[in-house]
Structures are given as C-alpha cells and as structure tokens.
C-alpha cells in the first residue's frame, strides 16, 4: 500500500498537570473521508491544533506521505498541504469574498499593486467549481452565516491542500447548503485528497465518511471502515458505554392548548405564522437557516416589535414587549448561539444560573447570596452539571455542560413553555441524550416544549408535531404519524 | 515524572498565579516599602493623609469610571463635568457679588445639591445618547467633554468663581477626627460602590450587561437602563469630585479637571478592570488610584521633575495591562 497522506502515532500533549491527549493515533488515506469522532473533551481539538502547527506536541510522531514532519507554526502545515476549515468563522466583514479567500497572498500586479481582476476571476472560478452560488465581488458583511461558511470552505480549498480538515463544517449550514458541501467533498475525494471530518452529527458521518477514528478521554479508542460499523456501536465507542436509545421520548401530548399564535408577522419578512402548542407536547420548528425560525421565537419572547398577529397563552391574549415580561408570563428561551447570546462567559456558573431570577433571589436591591448558592446548587444537581465549583467561570466548561447551565437558568424560572433554539448544537452524544431526557421530562410533567432544530434525526426522534418554515412562511404542519425525513426536506427547500 | 518535580511545578504555578492575581497590590506594597526607606518623610502621618487626599478626587472619578467600563463603555467627559458642576455649585455658594447668581450665597447644602444635579444631568445625557441612540460611548462622551467645558466657560463668563462660603468649603478643607473630608467622602463612595457591585441586584446586572449584553437581555435584564444608570453614576460622582475640588481650593476654576478622565481611566485599568467589559472590581480601582498617587508622591518627595512622573505613569498603565494580558493568555 502507498504511504498514507497523514499518519499520526502516539501523539501526546499536556497542559500543566492535565493530560489533554495521551495517545493520538490517526491514519488518513488518499481519496477518502475520515471521520474523527469523540465527545467534548475527547482530545479532538488538541489533536487538530497540533496537526495544524498551532500547538507543540509533547510526544509522538506525525508522518506526511511517509516522511516525519514537525510543524512549528500554522504556515508550516499549510506549506505541507494541510488546511483547515475552522468551526469559528473569521471573516473580514468589510472586504469582498475574493479578498477574504486570498487574504495575505493576493496576486501581485504592476509595482506590487494587487491584481484585483485576476483575484476576482480565480475566486469566482473556485466558487463556481464548487457550485457555490456566491459572487466573488460581494462583501462578506452582506452574506448569510451559511454563505460565510461556504466561503470559509472555498478558502481552505484554495490552498490546494491534499489534506483538508473540516471541523463541524455544517454547524451553521441548512440542508441545501450542506448538500452542496457534500457534493464538493465527493469531488475532492475523487481528486485523491484526504479529508478529516469532525462532526457531532452521526447521520452526516454515515452519509459521507469512508472510515472513522474514535477518541475518548484524550486517547485513541478504535478505528475502521464506516461500512463495518453500526450507528449504535459507534455511539458506544464514543461515550464508552452502551446507550439503549439515542432519543428519549416519554411524554404524551394532551389536547389542551397552551400557546396559540395567529397570523403573526415579524421583522418585515416573516408572515402569517399560525400554530398551536399543547400541554405535554414537543413541537418542533424545522426549516433552513434564514427561514424565520429564530425570528418567530424572538417575537414570542418580546425581543422584536409587534407587526401584527395575536398570541395567546393559556387562553389569554398576551403581547410581551420585553424578555422580562415574557419570563414573568412563563416563557423561557434557550437561544441558538450559546456563547453569543446564551452565556456570560466571563461570569461564573452561579451568576449564569441566577441571571434570569435576580429579583426573586434578592430582597430590595440586596442579593441574598444564600439563595443564589442554593439555586445554583439545585440546578447543578438536577442536571448533573460537571463543575468543580459554582464559582468557576463557565468558559472553562464543556459545550454540553455549558448548555446545561443555560437550561438550569431557565428551569429556575419555573417556565410553562420552553423555547429551545438548536438545543443540542455543538454538544456531544452523551450530553445530547441528557438534554433529550430533560426535554422529555419537562413535557411529561405538563410543560410545553417548542424546539428549533436543523437536524432531521432529532426532529424525527423527539417531535410530536412539526411546523416547517420556508422563506418566512409556514410551508406545512405535520403530525408525528406523517413525519419522514423526505417530507421535512421537501417542505423546507 | 517524579513527585518531587510535580511539587516544584505546583509551587511555581501557585507563585505565578499569586503574582498575577495580587500583582498590583504587590506593586503598591513594594513601592511603599521602597519609599519608606528612600525618604524618611514618606511614612509620616502627615504624608499619608496627604497622599490619601490627593487620591480622593481621582479615586471618586475612577469609581464612577469602573461602573462605565464594566459595561464596555468609557466616560471621557468626567473632567469637564468636574468643572461644570464646580462653577454651577460655586455660583450659589460665593460671597462675591459679581461671580454669584442673584441671592447668593445660598446654604451650602443647596449649592452642593445643584452641583450634584448638574453632574447627574450630564451623565444622563451621555447615557441616553449611548443606550438609546446607540452612539459609541467614546464619541458620545467625547462630545460631552467638549460641550460641558464650553458650558462651563459660558456659565462663568470665562472667569473663576471665587470666595466660597466656609460652609461650602467644609467638604474640601474640613476633617472628621483628623481625616480630611475628601478622604471621608471617598471612603464612603468606595464602600457604597463595593457593596453595589458585589452584593446588589444592580451590580449583578452591570456585570452581566458588560459580560454579554445579548445574554443579559434575553435573561430579562433591561440592558439599556443599566447602561443609562452607569453614566448617571459616573456623571454624579464627577459632579461630587468637582465640588470637592472647588471647596478645597476656595474657588471654582473653569480650567479645573482638564485631563482628569485619563487618570481615572488609568486607575481603573491598572486595577485590572477589562476594557472589554464584565470583569473587574472596585477594590482594584482603589489600588490603582492609590498606586498612581503614591508614585506621584514618592517622585515629588525625591524631587523628581513632574515631567518624569507622566512618563512613569504611562509605563505603569501599559505594564498593568500587559500583566492582565498574560493572565488571560494562561487561562
């Protein structure tokens, strides 16, 4: 067999006394998509940063085409034909797509002037080749999040790398854009490139990957061909124990309507939204990025002005003008972007849990620290949040635990209706399951859950009914009996 | 790895952590120790009182500035508000017939109230422009810096307001059990601010609004109101500082307070409060303000030219932030 594009063995890294990676092992063959799986804290990120030359290793061997290599800085890795599409986007908003793609390596023209014509032409050719419908001359700030992600992908490919690392590339993409990405991946594969694919979404891994490697607790657990593994056994490898069911759904919806929305308009382009949510029910909102799902939630929660339509909660007409009123009315809103709009990252676990209940936890202006500590402790126990102390900054917690802190904040308000916007994005399989358990229990106890999700599996697994949105309008409402992946995708696109 | 090296590593890590956490306090103590040996006059009661008195005005401004910076803002207008509040309140408390307004001198309390209202009003305008009209704080308060200075000159006709009543001057020159009034007021402001930021609901809201305004808003906090309030606090404290300054010198000058905002910001930043919001303590600000005052005092005592003092203060600010950056890089 020819040399592997990339072969890593015994990679080791520790920070202070903490071992982040004890045995990183990975073999990437040409013309293949290789999924790197593992929960949060499994050592995937550490592994990738070392391979990319961002961090130094403490031990182990990296071979590129059979030759041992040592990258001291990211550009060394790029020169060796390894590029990465990072999870966090880093666009320069005021520059064009072409300028972003060729940032720092613009084609030079006369007297060192940037040759814009060539740059735009090359960028457009690249985008066209990938079938991305984006103009190279448009400004980054005019693009949607999904388009930005596609540009980031084009940029990584523009380096002509042989090894392409994709870290959660679809986390901001809708179904249609994800399909474009997968088509591009197929073409790269055909061209003999190797792709390291990192994703928490197992359905994607089974769709596009050829082989897998699993890390757990900073060490290699196993690898093999995707064709030889079942979804269940892969999950078991990732979490290290058998999972009986991926989804947990024990609630039974009633006929009692808790929230009724009629002809709601918002943000100028989301129109005529009508739906009902019932006691004990998990209602899902499905649709592409930018279909208006989050906008509906924001309107319900009093974060955008009333532009027509009626909302009634428990039979009473309501029109919340601020989140405060919505919270007092019994609503809770777990936002999509945990770091951007969910957590105060500089704050500790306690402060974050207590944030929506400051009034209840104070007497006059004086905060009652006893009450705050008790409240935080209660939520930490209730959700099994893994933290050494409630005085630690939340930025140090894993994605799953951070999400549980946000959930804890909202459960403390004792809500009647839970609005969840992509509640399991960026959390590992184990934590996902715990979040499903929380949703199911809440609904079973008589609460109403309304959940936005881009993951078809999650919607099929958890929802009693689904409202599908397309371009700011409802394109269909489906009962659980009518649900199938095909109908969802069909209605959304 | 042997247990021995592990222990050494732990000890070293702890020492670094300690140095970073208490670095500014250590610096303050170190400077004090050096000055105690370098100059026999430094550690005398009189000099200590003197240092505290010199800290008071900047300290009061810096405490207001701490609230503002915690919400990711900045208040460049405090120096001008010092002057404006000074001349307005002084015009009610002067015995001069030309500089005062009709009926002056009024009771000191009334004059002080007027100065406070001026400061609060200036802060309120800043706050409204920043929170409701979304003008960056730097620009909004830069505007106020100019406008309030202009209003000061207009109001006082470009001349100082002299001959303040003894009642009014008490807040600048009086003392309680030998402690000068400016220091007493500064201490009171400090303890109230300490309580508000660490124990009150408003304090929690300030940290949340600065740490992540979006998350704070979703959690039901009226972020705009919190922002408005921090500028009102900063403006009110600037008014208070302006009156103490006028009372101490016996007349309100139209040129009072020029560049005071820079010292206030310096004290906050040296004290470890992050300009990106959500992180910082008023105790840090106190130490920052004391460090600036002690360094100035020490250089004075040693006969160093005041020009050098500015250079040293500049170095201090940058060094403090470098230390802060190192801390963030580690975590």
From TrEMBL, chain A:
<feature type="domain" description="ABC transporter">
    <location>
        <begin position="6"/>
        <end position="242"/>
    </location>
</feature>
<keyword id="KW-0067">ATP-binding</keyword>
<keyword id="KW-1278">Translocase</keyword>
<dbReference type="InterPro" id="IPR027417">
    <property type="entry name" value="P-loop_NTPase"/>
</dbReference>
<keyword id="KW-0762">Sugar transport</keyword>
<keyword id="KW-0547">Nucleotide-binding</keyword>
<keyword id="KW-1003">Cell membrane</keyword>
<keyword id="KW-0472">Membrane</keyword>
<keyword id="KW-0813">Transport</keyword>
<dbReference type="InterPro" id="IPR050107">
    <property type="entry name" value="ABC_carbohydrate_import_ATPase"/>
</dbReference>
<dbReference type="GO" id="GO:0005886">
    <property type="term" value="C:plasma membrane"/>
</dbReference>
<dbReference type="GO" id="GO:0016887">
    <property type="term" value="F:ATP hydrolysis activity"/>
</dbReference>
<dbReference type="GO" id="GO:0005524">
    <property type="term" value="F:ATP binding"/>
</dbReference>
<keyword id="KW-0677">Repeat</keyword>
<dbReference type="InterPro" id="IPR003593">
    <property type="entry name" value="AAA+_ATPase"/>
</dbReference>
<protein>
    <submittedName>
        <fullName>Putative xylitol transport system ATP-binding protein</fullName>
    </submittedName>
</protein>
<dbReference type="InterPro" id="IPR003439">
    <property type="entry name" value="ABC_transporter-like_ATP-bd"/>
</dbReference>
<feature type="domain" description="ABC transporter">
    <location>
        <begin position="252"/>
        <end position="491"/>
    </location>
</feature>
<dbReference type="Pfam" id="PF00005">
    <property type="entry name" value="ABC_tran"/>
</dbReference>
<dbReference type="InterPro" id="IPR017871">
    <property type="entry name" value="ABC_transporter-like_CS"/>
</dbReference>
Automatic annotation (TrEMBL), chain B:
<dbReference type="GO" id="GO:0005886">
    <property type="term" value="C:plasma membrane"/>
</dbReference>
<keyword id="KW-0472">Membrane</keyword>
<feature type="transmembrane region" description="Helical">
    <location>
        <begin position="22"/>
        <end position="43"/>
    </location>
</feature>
<keyword id="KW-0812">Transmembrane</keyword>
<feature type="transmembrane region" description="Helical">
    <location>
        <begin position="55"/>
        <end position="74"/>
    </location>
</feature>
<protein>
    <submittedName>
        <fullName>Putative xylitol transport system permease protein</fullName>
    </submittedName>
</protein>
<feature type="transmembrane region" description="Helical">
    <location>
        <begin position="81"/>
        <end position="102"/>
    </location>
</feature>
<dbReference type="GO" id="GO:0022857">
    <property type="term" value="F:transmembrane transporter activity"/>
</dbReference>
<feature type="transmembrane region" description="Helical">
    <location>
        <begin position="228"/>
        <end position="246"/>
    </location>
</feature>
<feature type="transmembrane region" description="Helical">
    <location>
        <begin position="137"/>
        <end position="156"/>
    </location>
</feature>
<keyword id="KW-0813">Transport</keyword>
<dbReference type="InterPro" id="IPR001851">
    <property type="entry name" value="ABC_transp_permease"/>
</dbReference>
<feature type="transmembrane region" description="Helical">
    <location>
        <begin position="176"/>
        <end position="197"/>
    </location>
</feature>
<keyword id="KW-1003">Cell membrane</keyword>
<keyword id="KW-0997">Cell inner membrane</keyword>
<keyword id="KW-1133">Transmembrane helix</keyword>
<feature type="transmembrane region" description="Helical">
    <location>
        <begin position="108"/>
        <end position="130"/>
    </location>
</feature>
<dbReference type="Pfam" id="PF02653">
    <property type="entry name" value="BPD_transp_2"/>
</dbReference>
<feature type="transmembrane region" description="Helical">
    <location>
        <begin position="278"/>
        <end position="295"/>
    </location>
</feature>
